[in-house]
């Protein structure tokens, strides 16, 4: 859409994200995500309204009826509640799995860490309300795929570019360029959060909580914090380089690759996250570790083993397995005694 080669675009996005995350850390991540979310919400509403204008047939009801009839003429399965030809929405259970993994996605570490940006606990309600409104505005951009199929039929060879092709068909070059910037913003809004989360794992979870806290390294607290800060900064460009190498050759469907990552993270983390919020009994660390391993392995077996063909449905089932594993082990395994209890 912007005439930029794939590899150049990947390097450009990674470089920009690495630059502002390296310079500003979590603060840069939170503020840039806020701006990008506003851009995506505006673009979503714009795309939704544009289809109504482009396919206008006297009234909104008649317009969407016309779009529906258009899709039915192409393939009647496109307008069925469950599309037997779809990988993700071929049955009620598959659709329910897709919805469930979307819920789990909202609790992913690189998204959930935005809560840490709140100054006061009372602002949580405002944050949730903002999320709901922004989500509604952003989700209507899905109509862009419907409009693309209605307008261009089967001429769009790749589902990943359906929205782009619709924009090229419907709008002048200036508008297409602006939408291209928004699409880049959407890519960066996810990428920066992941970079911050991964760098935090190396700095806090591995260095501070393992090497320092367990006495593997004898360092005073203030110096340890400074080293952790340096680690969090140094790992960002390394993560960016590795990310570029992983996708230097474009996958068949970028959406599937994205959901493989999201589903794997959800399967491994949702059990411990939910138990930490709702569990009444203190759980041993081993329970969380086993839940993570079992949830992730379940997903890898279900999806890559061909048992469940949908990335999202397989993720939902694996996430459920991880949650059940966490709940069961939390009541089966005995929590480790604290140092004070042993001393007493």
Note the topology.
Elements: H1 6-54, H2 60-74, H3 92-105, H4 109-112, H5 124-139, H6 143-152, H7 162-170, H8 173-212, H9 221-246, H10 254-278, H11 285-304, H12 311-332, H13 339-343
Helix pairs in contact: 1-5, 1-8, 1-9, 2-6, 3-12, 6-7, 8-9, 10-11, 10-12, 11-12
What does this structure look like?
The structure is a single chain. With 344 residues, the chain is an all-alpha fold. The protein folds into two domains: 6-250, no CATH class; 252-336, no CATH class. It is built from 13 helices and no strands. It has helices spanning 6-54, 60-74, 92-105, 109-112, 124-139, 143-152, 162-170, 173-212, 221-246, 254-278, 285-304, 311-332, 339-343. Helix 6 (143-152) packs across helix 7 (162-170). 28% of the residues are buried.
Summed up, what is this model?
With 344 residues, the chain is mainly alpha-helical. The chain has helices at 6-54, 60-74, 92-105, 109-112, 124-139, 143-152, 162-170, 173-212, 221-246, 254-278, 285-304, 311-332, 339-343.
**What series of H and E elements makes up the topology?**
HHHHHHHHHHHHH
The parts where pLDDT drops under 50 for at least 5 residues are: 337-344
Task: Round the mean pLDDT to the nearest integer and report it.
Answer: 82
Q: How would the global form be characterised?
A: globular
**Biggest sheet, open or closed, and with what strands and sense?**
none
Helix-strand category: mainly alpha
Give me the number of helical elements: 13
Strand content: under 5%
The total beta strand count reads 0
């Amino acid at each position: 859409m912007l005439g930029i080669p794939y590899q150049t675009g990947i390097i450009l996005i990674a470089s920009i994200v690495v630059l502002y995350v390296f310079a500003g850390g979590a603060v840069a991540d939170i503020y840039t995500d806020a701006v990008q979310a506003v851009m995506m919400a505006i673009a979503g509403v714009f795309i939704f309204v544009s289809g109504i204008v482009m396919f206008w047939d006297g009234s909104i009801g008649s317009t969407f009826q016309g779009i529906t009839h258009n899709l039915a003429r192409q393939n009647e399965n496109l307008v069925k509640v469950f599309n037997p030809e779809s990988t993700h929405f071929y049955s009620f259970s598959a659709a329910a799995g897709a919805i469930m993994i979307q819920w789990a996605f909202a609790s992913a570490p690189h998204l959930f860490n935005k809560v840490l940006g709140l100054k006061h606990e009372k602002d949580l309600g405002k944050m949730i309300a903002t999320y709901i409104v922004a989500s509604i505005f952003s989700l209507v951009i899905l109509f862009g795929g419907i409009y693309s199929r209605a307008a261009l039929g089967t001429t769009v060879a790749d589902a990943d570019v359906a929205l782009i092709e619709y924009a090229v068909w419907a709008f002048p070059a200036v508008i297409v360029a602006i939408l291209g910037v928004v699409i880049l913003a959407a890519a960066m809004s996810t990428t920066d959060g992941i970079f911050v989360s991964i760098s935090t794992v190396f700095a806090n979870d591995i260095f501070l909580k393992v090497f320092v806290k367990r006495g593997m390294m004898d360092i005073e607290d203030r110096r340890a914090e400074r080293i952790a800060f340096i680690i969090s900064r140094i790992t960002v460009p390394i993560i960016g380089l590795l990310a570029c190498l992983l996708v230097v050759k474009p996958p068949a469907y970028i959406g599937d690759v994205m959901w493989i990552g999201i589903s794997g993270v959800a399967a491994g983390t949702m059990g411990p996250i939910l138990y930490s919020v709702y569990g009444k009994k203190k759980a041993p660390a081993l329970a969380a570790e086993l839940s993570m391993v079992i949830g992730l392995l379940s997903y890898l077996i279900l999806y890559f083993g061909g048992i469940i063909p949908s990335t999202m449905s397989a993720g939902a089932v694996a996430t459920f397995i991880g949650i059940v594993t966490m709940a069961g082990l939390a009541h089966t395994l005995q929590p480790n005694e604290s140092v004070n209890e042993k001393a007493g």
